[in-house]
Amino acid sequence: MKESLFNYRFEYENQKYIFNTNNNGLIQINNDIFTEEEREYLRVNRFWVDDNEDEIALLEREINHNIQKRQKELELTIALTNYCNFSCVYCYQNKNEKLMTTEVANMIIEKIDRILNDNIFEGINIHYFGGEPLLNIPVLIYLDENIKKITDKIGIVYKAFLTTNGSMLSKELLQKVKFSSIQLTFDGLEKTHDRLRVSDHFHFKEEIELIENIMNFSQAKVLLRTNICKENKDEIIALHKYIFEKFGNERIEINPNRTIKYHQDDSFEMLSVQEYAEVAYQIKLLWSEQKGKFELPVPRSTPCKFPYGNAYAISPEGYCTFCSGSMDQEKKYFFDVDIENKKMFSVRKECKKCNILPLCLGGCIIQYNLRAGACTYEKYELKNILISYIKHIS
């Protein structure tokens, strides 16, 4: 027998622990001399494995099985336009004034109708995206109404999600479209936010007022996205505390992200993965304290869904690209996509000796290709995360 590649050993208050990132198991040990009963427990729970076992090959097989099996929900991200009325300093998109037409929308609706009637899905999730999607409200409403007709007829669940800068989100739209979640971005406290998210009319104060409208005129949750860079890292915790104090946490979710430089002349400084990890850990710790719920890191059952055919991003022209963050890939109409055609996952060479691999499965492909660092923050903060959990359960 040999110790699992995915074991992470650490000490806290003179006690020794092992956390296995592939089985989500945390154990306390006294030493490395075990009884037969303890050895059997370690073997069954895969803290120890057979000498000839290839854990990477087994992980790849398991992940590919998960990719190939039918998903419960059809996941689509629909970019209604690539145009935006903001000029955020970190924007990656090539803006143009192209809007999705009803003709393209009809093509998408027809494909959705065919997929949902031919396949067994329990639901469909539509993420309305841009650019700024609310620059094309008529087509958003058109899609929403027609998709709802399809799902009502079949008897499956339809959930609508919106990513928006908020500047055009009215009370009337909140009442008309039953969004499950609305992602809003705050990039620091007022002064910093307004410098990074450049708008001539919609600023920090207006976005705070918008959260109040969402709370009052809809049942949607607010997904609080933060794009973290050197310019705002020191006030991100204060921002989250401000939001929680003002709106509570029942309908607020968090989505911290490291801001990536897509262009060398972008006017901000990118954090290293390790610098970002320190901030991300503090955010997650604050969130756990807010919820009164501390959890162990959970291994991923699949990598990012877009590259492997379990989610699709659709451009304003109706092309299907593998990621909403990269709309310039090979062009193929969504109408022509075979949703049964899944790609195979394999672990990159440099990840094969990493004991936290199951937590990220290699991370974001786009960030990797940009050489911007694709590792998860847990790689650098795992000990602190585990200690926080132990403190909580004690």
Walk me through the structure.
The protein has an 8-stranded mixed β-sheet. The model has no long low-confidence stretch (mean pLDDT 93). It has helices at 36-44, 55-68, 102-118, 137-154, 171-176, 190-196, 204-217, 236-247, 273-291, 305-308, 357-360, 365-369, 378-393; strands at residues 2-3, 7-12, 15-20, 25-29, 48-49, 73-79, 123-129, 157-163, 179-185, 221-228, 252-258, 312-314, 320-321. It is globular and about 70 Å long. The protein has 394 residues and is α/β, with parallel strands linked by helices. Keywords: 4Fe-4S, Iron, Iron-sulfur, Metal-binding, S-adenosyl-L-methionine.
Index terms:
eight-stranded mixed β-sheet; 37% helix; TIM Barrel; 394 residues; 13 helices; alpha/beta
SSE topology sketch:
Blueprint: E1 2-3, E2 7-12, E3 15-20, E4 25-29, H1 36-44, E5 48-49, H2 55-68, E6 73-79, H3 102-118, E7 123-129, H4 137-154, E8 157-163, H5 171-176, E9 179-185, H6 190-196, H7 204-217, E10 221-228, H8 236-247, E11 252-258, H9 273-291, H10 305-308, E12 312-314, E13 320-321, H11 357-360, H12 365-369, H13 378-393
Parallel strand pairs: 6-7, 6-12, 7-8, 8-9, 9-10, 10-11
Antiparallel strand pairs: 1-5, 2-3, 3-4, 12-13
